[in-house]
Amino acid sequence: MVLELYLDLLSQPCRAIYIFAKKNGIPFQMHTVELREGEHLSDAFAQVNPMKKVPAMKDDDFTLSESVAILLYLTHKYKVPDHWYPRELQARARVDEYLAWQHTALRRSCLRALWQKMMIPVFLGEQVPSETLTATLAELDVNLQVLEDKFLQDKAFLIGPRISLADLVAVTEVMHPVGGGCPVFEGRPKLAAWYHRVEAAVGKDLFREAHEVILKAKDSPPADLISKQKLMPRVLAMIQ
Amino acid sequence: MVLELYMDLLSAPCRAVYIFAKKNGIPFDFQFVDLLKGHHHSKEYIEINPLRKLPSLRDGKFILSESVAILFYLCRKYSAPSHWYPPDLHMRARVDEFMAWQHTAIQQPMSKILWIKLLIPMITGEQVPDEKIERTMEEANKNLQQFEEKFLQDKMFITGDNISLADLVALVEMMQPMGSNHNVFISSKLAEWRMRVELAIGSSLFWEAHDRLAKLPDWDSSTLDPSIKLRMSEFLEKYK
């Protein structure tokens, strides 16, 4: 049976997996899990991932969650080109370092920035206290600076001359606040140049395809009451 | 030149690296970075890790942060027995899945319990509001339950019959609340797994690694440098 991927391209980690699978010609069946309708909270989806989160993967009877784990699984199973997750010890360690750091740092800021700045007001019709939003955007700023100063430095890509899993995870994260209208690349020419390199390495068409949903998210029709009720508890966690 | 590990065993990620290195006979210089004295903010340490976090590894000119990355690096460089990070695709994926999930699901809540129950009252003289304590405990318990149901299930260890990096990381993190005399190993399944992991590591090494944490309630927090206390206040705001 063909690999099944449960994704919503609204989600940053889902975009990384989508791009990686497509770029490497990995055949898969896509199941769209509509986050804005609370589909991830359904009992049906809990059968695939009891954590009720996307992305999730099903390879025959084997189910897997966590985008980093899924990316590594696909890397090992489909024997993709070495540059994605180099065999060389120190280069691989650099990818691991980025993939570990981002969970509580850049990913967290990007998610909060998108929701607090745009999704909560536009989609859920609620306001976020301005001091909360200010703090979130400041935190995003700090993490973008770390991305530039610690990880990118003067290299073409995060770990060296070629694109790796680290760049893919980072770029899809950074597109999240972009979708929320945050001027992420303003005053950051180094980061902007890196972004263009990653987009070119992925392929502009595939990159655009993967980011269509997030870039249109600001035009989301407001959530109906039922969806809103389903989503609010988890969304509130994003404001605290 | 011998490997250097910059650590304070009060930190769970440091304990994972310490135990792994010792268990596998990996020679290293223990560079003690005293968190209680704020040495992670020292000029010397900032040069090693500008993010001021522990642990860090220095191998000649190569400096690495993030305990998960360090554990993988050590595993590969020193060819640790394969059960630590199994070559089997599915078993390895399970370890990767846990290592990704634990950052926010286990490490943060467990650390929060220590701060809320011991460190905040001790350092600031203030109690954390009951409602916050309750919320923290609820989240911690929910995640511990998910750990049991999804990762442990009815197996001896996370990947099956043998200890892996996932068990090591899980246990040292779940030990963190012990520093405030709070025991999370209440269910018999969790308690039995805990003992199994301790025995697989070796009780002597395990308790050696946890000695500083066990003595934390005896720490005289009045010796805390005022400038360190100031730095902490921002950090503490997160938990209040």
TrEMBL record, chain A:
It holds the Pfam family GST_N. It comes from the Eukaryota. It catalyses: RX + glutathione = an S-substituted glutathione + a halide anion + H(+). Residues 88-222 form the GST C-terminal domain. Its EC number is 2.5.1.18. One of its GO terms (molecular function) is glutathione transferase activity. It is an enzyme of class 2 (transferase). One of its GO terms (cellular component) is cytosol. Signal peptide: none annotated. The keyword Cytoplasm applies. It is found in: Cytoplasm. PROSITE patterns: GST_CTER, GST_NTER. Its main location: cytoplasm. Residues 1-82 form the GST N-terminal domain. Keywords: Cytoplasm, Transferase. GO terms for biological process: glutathione metabolic process. Belongs to the GST superfamily. Theta family. Homodimer. This is glutathione transferase.
Automatic annotation (TrEMBL), chain B:
It is found in: Cytoplasm. One of its GO terms (biological process) is glutathione metabolic process. Residues 88-221 form the GST C-terminal domain. GO terms for molecular function: glutathione transferase activity. GO terms for cellular component: cytoplasm. It holds the Pfam family GST_C. SUPFAM superfamilies: GST C-terminal domain-like, Thioredoxin-like. CDD domains: GST_C_Theta, GST_N_Theta. Residues 1-82 form the GST N-terminal domain. Its EC number is 2.5.1.18. It catalyses: RX + glutathione = an S-substituted glutathione + a halide anion + H(+). Keywords: Cytoplasm, Transferase. It is an enzyme of class 2 (transferase). InterPro entries: Glutathione-S-Trfase_C-like, Glutathione-S-Trfase_C_sf, Glutathione_S-Trfase, Glutathione_S-Trfase_N, GST_C, GST_C_Theta, GST_N_Theta, GST_Theta. Homodimer. Belongs to the GST superfamily. Theta family. Conjugation of reduced glutathione to a wide number of exogenous and endogenous hydrophobic electrophiles. This is Glutathione S-transferase theta-4.
